[in-house]
Amino acid sequence: MTIDETAVDTVITAIKQSRKYRDTSEETIRQLAVEAVIEHKKPKPAEKAVRKRLHSIMAPYLGDPDYAEARRLLTDSFASGDGKIVRAACRDLMHAHLSTRERLPILDSFYEEIFAVTGPPRRLLDIACGLNPLAFPWMGLPAPGTDFIAYDIHEPRVDFLNHYFGLQGLPPLAYVRDVAVHAPVENGDVALFLKEMPRFERNYPGRGRALLEAIDTRWLVVSFPTISTHGGRNLTNRYRDFFHQLIDGTGWAVTELLFETELVFCADKTVADRA
Ligand SMILES: C[S@@+](CC[C@H](N)C(=O)[O-])C[C@H]1O[C@@H](n2cnc3c(N)ncnc32)[C@H](O)[C@@H]1O
């Protein structure tokens, strides 16, 4: 199929110039632009379609800190040499994004319980990470000594996370990577895919299972919010069914952990390999 590359470039330029989506990875915009130009032919309706999909993919309504200020805050807090001040700064920053904000009340036990199931990872992947890498001080993992590999499609967020990793004594392994276009190739012990699967399946229907299968780690940790963002409805049963349907037939051994604000599944992929 021949694609109208000029129309694709017009759409990419328009989106990259927009205030709302200029921070989005070009890989993501290109992929959506190609799909939209194939469907809509002309740049204007294609641009509109890309914006609509980006609203759901980037979810700007979940919130962001001001990244320049956030860098300064972290630099100053690490300069204090006081672990309590660093944790307070990380907490404040995680408060800026709904997914991490909802996790703050359970943070003290969240990773402790997860790593009690999976074992502490030497190489940890965090897929569609948002601001979650700032939870590292609550993970009980050594720095240096841990490879924390994080992926997101928001460019300033990823830059900021590498700044944080540097301060924390971790290698700068945060990447701008659209995992719907290229599944992560890095291997590891545990992969986190927290609170993004329902949106991922909505944005890229039918591709959630393939992503989980492609991830090269022994353990997958997939989570869901227990309460809906808007209506306060309890979603635990719905998401439990959703997850078990998604991995039906894989043979993975699943351990469920239910926290007040988050439903977590730890899936051991090696059990299926041994069967
Ligand atoms: C709901 S937030 C969850 C953040 C984090 N996992 C947490 O639970 O704190 C979703 C994140 O996924 C990222 N994202 C969405 N689609 C993505 C994709 N195709 N590839 C990589 N990251 C993606 C968004 O930019 C956003 O930061």
Structural descriptors:
binds S-adenosylmethionine, Helicase, Ruva Protein, domain 3, alpha/beta, seven-stranded mixed β-sheet, 2 domains, 7 strands, single chain, 12 helices, Rossmann fold, 275 residues
Q: Topology, please?
A:
Layout: H1 5-16, H2 26-40, H3 43-58, H4 67-79, H5 83-94, H6 98-103, H7 107-118, E1 123-127, E2 147-152, H8 155-168, E3 174-176, E4 188-194, H9 197-203, H10 208-214, E5 217-225, H11 236-246, E6 253-258, E7 262-268, H12 270-274
Parallel strand pairs: 1-2, 1-4, 2-3, 4-5
Antiparallel strand pairs: 5-7, 6-7
Helix pairs in contact: 1-2, 1-3, 2-3, 4-5, 4-8
The protein binds S-adenosylmethionine.
S-adenosylmethionine binds at residues 57-59, 62, 99-100, 128-130, 132, 151-154, 178-180, 194-196.
Descriptive notes:
It contains twelve helices and seven strands. The chain folds into two domains: 5-58, Helicase, Ruva Protein, domain 3; 101-274, Vaccinia Virus protein VP39 (Rossmann fold). It starts with a helix and ends with a helix. The longest helix is centred in the N-terminal third of the chain and has 16 residues, at 43-58. The protein is globular, with a radius of gyration of 19 Å. Strands 3-2-1-4-5-7-6 form a seven-stranded mixed beta sheet. It is of the alpha/beta class. Helix 1 crosses helix 2 (26-40), helix 1 crosses helix 3 and helix 4 (67-79) runs antiparallel to helix 5.
